[in-house]
Amino acid sequence: MTDAYVVGVDMIKFGRFPEKSVPQIGAESALLALDDCGLSIQDMEALYCGNLMQASAMVGQRILQEIGQTGIPVVNVSNACATGATAFREAWASVKAGLYDIVLAVGVEQMGRGLLGGTGGKGIPKEGLFGSGTMPAVFAEAGMEHARKHGTTFEQFAKVSVKNHHHSTMNPKAMYQIETPLETVMNAEMISYPNTKLMCSVNVDGSAAAVIATEKKARELGLLGRAVKVCASVLTSDRWQERDLVMPDVNTCTQEAAAKAYAMAGLGPEDIDLVELHDCFATAEILHYENLGLCGAGEAGRMIDDGEVALGGRIPVNVSGGLLSKGHPLGATGIANIYEVSTHLRGEAGERQVQGARIGMTHVIGLGSACGIHILEKAA
Amino acid sequence: MSQPLPAVDYLKLPEGGEPYLEGHRCQTCGASFLGKRNVCSKCGARDQMQAVHLPNSGSLYSYCIVHRSFPGIEVPYISAIVDLDDGTAIKGNLINIEPDPAKIEFGMPVEVVYGDALGRRDKEGNAYIAYFFQPKSG
Ligand SMILES: [Zn+2]
To answer: Lower CB density within 10 Å: C or N end of chain B?
Structure first.
């Protein structure tokens, strides 16, 4: 099988755009990604579009109605917070399989404000009667499981948010660029202990897009110079676990996806120069240091205390600002992560550049569950 | 006024008997589930599910303290994951203890208690019975 390369990739600055439609928001990053490699929609052989909230509304076709209706096949993808990564992976798979030489993947979301999750069902409302189904609560319970096993503290969880907010001050495409000290994070409104408001991802609108090509096509187009090789693409779902009916297990599907990704790439955690992982809540980021093998079991609290995961540290995590500060437009997140890692591998990340970055990893979790991991490497 | 209804389908209210939680246990692999099912999602066995009475005692596995919920939901409250004594995991409100992390201990013994579903009624005005967890007395 041929290798597949990201030859063009970009995202819009995340924000709130109630005056725009979902396809309009998606079209913006599609055009940016095409511009990034100097191509047009006429060069694309297929479109893979990730969007969650309008999953039944043909968002991909409507993006083409904004930027060029060329009659190419369009696949609309929905997979919770792994939606963007799944669209990217389907695009990658089509190129690997030899179906197409060059394709476009777009992830887009327009979010409301407020809490996600929780409601629904027949009879009477269950929220607050049988615990909480809100996302901050679900991920707080996952974090408290880590606290139970390893003694992780509220302060350690809070430090994740301090770090990611600091990183985002160097990312002009993040929703926020605001230094946020530990006291501010810990004293913010408590949503679900131990997650305060500043430890919850920001609901924003956004989109990101990538152009993926075979090695041959990338070479023909003269695009290998800035290209980024996709060394691994893995998707897992939630294997049966004893508590998973009442406590979604975001750990096992991540551990399994990471093991497969390392095997596929022929690499190990020690080879990874930066990671963009799914910090939907500060508690979640701590879990994934261990799930991705960035440290041993029970060492995540020490990782954040020692600054190993900050820019300049041993293995910088979420230098984009992460979902906590860059923002989390669900369907766009899994491609925005690809953009971030690719930008570092290209040496184009400016002030927040991870020096000498050659290999990077992206990770997303869609609760329910889907885990998507990609390993990217600078083209030789 | 009609009889109160169970707030979830795995809570059973036998006539003239005590309320209880019903699980379904796979006769092939032993996995335990809340709610009815035909196929075991652990081992894939078909038609091996047997209804069982779940125990009314267990221990606190994990929790969080909810300070912001949907409009109209009273906060704060403790959202708890409990391992019942037979290994079945179940989620609910932990009551009769302060919602303060300093007061709550992982692994603390809890018991299942039954009562009115916090005054919630459906559109037809029916009352409901729910289950809660509380620290085990004695
Ligand atoms: Zn079974």
So the answer is: C
CA distances from A316 to A144, A233, A319, A321 (A): 24, 21, 7, 11
Q: Cα(B128)–Cα(B26) distance, rounded to whole angstroms?
A: 29
CB contact under 8 A, A128 and B117: no
Single out the residue of A146, A79, A88 nearest to residue A285, CA to CA. Answer: A146
In order of A137, B91, B135, the CA distances from A124 in angstroms are 20, 17, 26
Closest-CA distance, B134 to chain A, in angstroms, reads: 13
Q: Which class for B52: exposed (0-12), middle (13-18), buried (19 or more C-beta within 10 A)? A: middle
What pTM did the predictor assign? 0.96
Options A288, A328, A344, A363, the catalytic residue: A328
Q: Which residue has the tokens 């246990």?
A: B25
Write the CB contacts of A253 (distance below 8 Å, at least 6 apart in sequence): A236, A237, A238, A239, A365, A369, A370, A371
Instruction: Out of A37, A81, A280, A295, pick the active-site residue.
Output: A81
Task: Give CA separation, A86 vs A103, A129, A257, A323, in Å.
Answer: 14, 34, 13, 18
Residues, chain A:
380
Residue B31 alpha carbon to ligand 1 centre in Å: 5
How close is the nearest chain A Cα to the Cα of B17, in Å? Answer: 23
**Are A376 and A363 within 8 A, CB to CB?**
no
ipTM of the complex in this document: 0.94
C-alpha distances (whole Å) from A199 to each of A26, A29, A159, B88 are 27, 27, 9, 31
Say if residues A171 and A178 touch (Cβ distance below 8 Å).
Answer: no
Q: How far apart are CA A14 and CA A204, in angstroms?
A: 6
Task: Please name the residue of chain A whose CA is at the shortest distance from the CA of residue B83.
Answer: A243
Report d(CA A209, CA A11) in Å as an integer: 6
Q: How far is the CA of B48 from the centre of ligand 1 (A)?
A: 8
What CATH number does the domain located at A4-111+202-373 have?
Answer: 3.40.47.10
CA torsion A159-A161-A162-A164 (nearest 10°) is 120
Q: CA-CA distance, A153 to B45, in Å (whole number)?
A: 41
Contact A335, A51 (CB under 8 A): no
380 residues of chain A, pLDDT tens digit each: 789 999 999 999 999 999 999 999 999 999 999 999 999 999 999 999 999 999 999 999 999 999 999 999 999 999 999 999 999 999 999 999 999 999 999 999 999 777 776 555 678 999 999 999 999 999 999 999 999 999 999 999 999 999 999 999 999 999 999 999 999 999 999 999 999 999 999 999 999 999 999 999 999 999 999 999 999 999 999 999 999 889 999 999 999 999 999 999 999 999 999 999 999 999 999 999 999 999 999 999 999 999 999 999 999 999 999 999 999 999 999 999 999 999 999 999 999 999 999 999 999 999 999 999 999 999 87
Give the tens place of pLDDT for each residue, B29-76: 999 999 889 999 999 999 999 999 999 999 999 999 999 999 989 999
